[in-house]
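Why does this matter for the project? Reviewers at the last site visit asked to see concrete outputs rather than summary tables. In response, this paragraph embeds two records directly. Each consists of the residue sequence and, immediately after it, the corresponding structure tokens. Nothing has been edited or filtered.
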Amino acid sequence: MNKVLFIQILRENRLLCIVLLLATLLCSALWYATFRQSSLLAQQQTDWTTKRRQAAPRAEAERTSSYQRDREQLQQLYATIPYRHEFPRVISEILDFMVLRSTTPGAMSYKVKKTDLNGLLAYSMTCSASGSYPGLKRLIGDLERLDGISTLDSVTFTTPDPALEKVVLDLQLTIYLQEKQP
């Protein structure tokens, strides 16, 4: 009797049985996928850890070579910076640029400051020149290419008489020089 009753229940509740069977299949598929994914994740983590351990010595070697390369570049840069006793030569070079560009030099003054960089002095220099506008523009270009390390901090053009083509240039320049010879 149990068998007949069971078959009759199944026939009457066919939809419920199909839903129960599908839910069971879905749960088992999700459990399998989760189990499989966690094992793949564990394998990928192991692979990643292995690769990091292999790459660590190379990264350390690259860091060391990068440090040495940067140090050599700094030494090359320092080699281009003139020494303090060469400041008159730098002023002479600026005056030569002014003569080359057909400008008339004006007043020059400078002030020495210590920098945060070891062994470097900053000479903050103000000077003026007068001449034609194209000549003064070329002079600025020459000053930007001055030997060593220098920065053109400010540039001001003024025209004392608008009827004349004469322009006055006031500029502030910072020149970096090494404090003493090695």
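We now turn to the second protein, recorded in exactly the same manner.
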Amino acid sequence: MDICITSITHPPYFIFLKDHLLSMKEAVIRQPEVRCYLLASGLDEGARKDLRSIIDKNGFAQLTLIEEKERYTIGEARNRLFQETHNEWVLFTDCDTILDRNYIHNMKSFFNQKKFENVGAVAGSIGIAKNATKFGYFEGLMDIVALNGKIKKIDKSIFDNILTDTGASQEAEECERNLYN
């Protein structure tokens, strides 16, 4: 099966990149034919240096890094990645998610047992990075709600209480403040 994994990042999200890359590496380590692409956008010289340091320590042979000075929206970044890939299946991930070590195996098994004629998107097993921002936790919880077939919005006040109960790190809270202020 012809499959690849793509991911996008930008400087404020570099704090998640090490864990994301390690999970991606673990997911493809026994699948040498699976290529991985990481698009980093919005890079100035300082950010490029920081990114290279992370990649030097946590990169792997199947990873292709694409560096862009221009800042892309999520849609633009995914379209740019799609231009780089020529695979039957392109799996889009984000740098603040943790891939299950069996992600590729499970996705291949799923694809092989179903006939897909009109499928636009499929999601596999993901986790939430341990130092995710409040938005990352919220997004992860909404994914879990949707996955369990209970498609309803979680009220923000309830979410804030859940976040407090989970003990989200102060570092993540600080990162979120810096992102949105």
